[in-house]
Amino acid sequence: MRRAFSLGVYRVRGMATCATCSKRLLNGIICSDCGNLQPPNAELSHFEYLGFEERYDVDTGALKRKFLELQNKVHPDKAGSSGDTKKQLFEEHSSRLNSAYKVLLDPVLRAEYMLGTKEDDKSAESPEFLMEMLEKGEEIEEISDHNQLEATRKQLIDDIDSIKAEIADHFSHSQKAEAVTALIRLRYYLRLLSNVNSRLGFDSK
């Protein structure tokens, strides 16, 4: 049996095997042994679907490479002149693949997905934190020197990386409340970075 761990809860499922050759699957899309596409399985998490361990600090470089590899295999154009059933299979996998990749690549969407919610927990926003973010935002707005703005951008990126590491640690210790609080901080810091990037003419960090 395979176990997927998320916030202290084990979800036990039967070992995923290929519908054609019965070999163990490394992802929910295509069998690495016989090369056949698999029937869509809504029970698989985004992590399982792409063949990754369920953890917040996923290797985004490996994720991008796996996405491109699988995208090339399930692009609807690959169905060629196959019948409607096979074309639909390609389309379903292509759509799910794009959705799963979008969620797992984004640090906020990934955390929301693992937490099972997209809603902000307003109770986790203390007055002190809100005041701190307000003051930080005002300080950034007052910066007019380009070099100082560049330095602020670098510091924000470092702060964001630290918050991501903190979120990963909370997930690894099944600390949901702490993960929610850190996620709220991450959202605020990403907004600050977006503002700085815009002023510097960057599309993203």
Automatic annotation (TrEMBL):
By its UniProt entry, which InterPro entries does this protein fall under? DnaJ_domain (IPR001623), HscB (IPR004640), HscB_C_sf (IPR036386), HscB_oligo_C (IPR009073), J_dom_sf (IPR036869)
Protein name (database record): J domain-containing protein
Nucleus: present as a keyword of the record?
no
Q: Where is the J domain?
A: 45-117
Organism lineage string: Eukaryota, Metazoa, Ecdysozoa, Nematoda, Chromadorea
**Which family is it part of?**
Belongs to the HscB family.
CDD domains xref list: DnaJ
Give any GO molecular function from the UniProt entry: protein-folding chaperone binding
Q: What GO cellular component entries does it have?
A: mitochondrion
The UniProt record lists the keyword Transmembrane helix: no
Positions of transmembrane segments: none
One Pfam family per UniProt: HSCB_C
Which Gene Ontology biological process is one annotated for this entry? [2Fe-2S] cluster assembly
Name the keywords, alphabetized. Chaperone
| NCBIfam families to which the protein is assigned, alphabetical | hscB
